Amino acid sequence: MPRPSLSTERPREPKAETRAEAERGSASLEFIVVGLVLLVPIVYLVVALGALQSAALGAEAGARHVARAIATASGPGEAQQRADDILATVNREYRLDPAGTAVAIDCRPATATCPAAGSTVVVRIDTRVALPFMPAIWGLDRATAIPVEAMSAQKVSRFWGES
């Protein structure tokens, strides 16, 4: 026979699991899943933007230094040698693909020989940046490559090539 209770409280039923106890351990699982879903795209974005920034800085530095080297050279032979040396250094330092980098040198106003004394040398460098981890199947690496171009102009001395 059940004992009568002197208390006014109702007798408690067997303890049911509280909501916190029922969800025990799911917070760490949710953190891992959500962390991976958010972290992987952010890391990829940082890597891709880093590659793009490197190529942009390399193209800009190459165009600027080649224009300056040509404008300050003493003659056409030295100008060509300096330009080649600078382009090789820029391609190596900024990890640009030498085969995929196009360099155009133009003079303004247009003259028969470029560069010419008193003209302005305009150097344009075009390259493409392949997105990281893009497979070469079906040409995805080429289709997703981002074009980068840089231009620089430098005034050539009116005494250029007279040495």
UniProtKB/TrEMBL annotation:
This is TadE family protein. Residues 1-21 are annotated as: Disordered. The chain crosses the membrane at residues 31-52. It comes from Microbacterium aurantiacum. Keywords: Membrane, Transmembrane, Transmembrane helix. Residues 9-21 have a biased composition (Basic and acidic residues).
